[in-house]
Amino acid sequence: AVAHALALAAEGADILDIGGESTRPGAPTVSEAEELARVIPVIEQLASQTEAALSIDTQKPAVAEAALAAGAVIVNDIAANRTEPQMWEIAATARAGYIAMHMQGTPQTMQDAPAYTDVVTEVHTFFEERLERFTEAGLDPEQVMFDPGIGFGKTVEHNLALLAGLERFTKMARPILVGASRKSFLGHLTGADTIQRLPGSLACACRAAAAGAAVVRVHEVKETAQALRVWAAVN
Ligand code: 8Y4
């Protein structure tokens, strides 16, 4: 994991997202002890070996807290629809960045029957409503980035509507992150297998950049950096 992360940093990644539990629908859950054993040594080693910012991808407040102590500076929270404030309090106390991702349901249930009246409006309302909750827990709005959560409780049509409607989010007060890389909607649209989805992933990265997204979460860093460099030169 350390070697892979260092290779991504060498290819131009500014942020490395470290996670110890799969979010795939139906994936087995991981105990806190096992998740800590997977991610903390990786974060400790990376903290002394790269200037890239380290983010911790976890749903467990205790794992986030330990990761921040080990050198992570961002909490990547795919479960920002939670009700308990612990995750926000931990990010607030550490003065860490906090990525608040939209998800309908939980990773176990999210793809059962995703349903929205208007997905863009509902995600937008979620962001507005959450910012109030976060500040109550002590987060400074300056710590927060929002993410529409492509693929998390969304059909192909919902994902496309979110990508088409990104400007609604990038007009908001906080930066936006988009993670579409290799996701299954790209396979549904094109027939491409997971590791054959770079072209579709690049189309999404350029679309996100065009809409003013601040961060793209990708698997193929070198190729995405080239696409975004050309896109930026044209604009
Ligand atoms: C192939 C490879 C097919 C990977 C699907 C996937 C996001 C995220 C994930 C995201 C934020 C993934 C942890 C899903 N996606 N965090 N995490 N935003 N903030 N699936 O979009 O990469 S994991």
Descriptive overview:
- The protein is α/β, with parallel strands linked by helices and 235 residues long.
- It is 47% helix and 11% strand.
- It contains ten helices and seven strands.
- The strands form two sheets. It has a five-stranded parallel beta sheet. A two-stranded parallel ribbon has the order 6-7.
- Helix 9 packs parallel to helix 10.
- It starts with a helix and ends with a helix.
- Bound molecules: ligand 8Y4.
- Ligand 8Y4 binds next to strand 4.
**Total count of strands:** 7
Mean pLDDT: 97
- Oligomeric category: single chain
Basic shape = globular
Main sheet record: 5 strands, parallel
- Gyration radius (Cα, Å) is 17 Å
- Helical amount among residues, as a percent range? 40-55%
What's the tally of helices? Answer: 10
Bound molecules: ligand 8Y4
Instruction: Give, in spatial order, the strands making up the sheet with the most strands.
Output: 1-2-3-4-5
Query: Uncertain runs with pLDDT below 50, 5 residues or more?
Result: none
Beta-strand portion reads: 5-15%
N-end to C-end Cα span: 36 Å
Category by helix and strand content: alpha/beta
Give the ordered list of helices and strands.
Answer: HEHEHEHEHEHHEHHEH
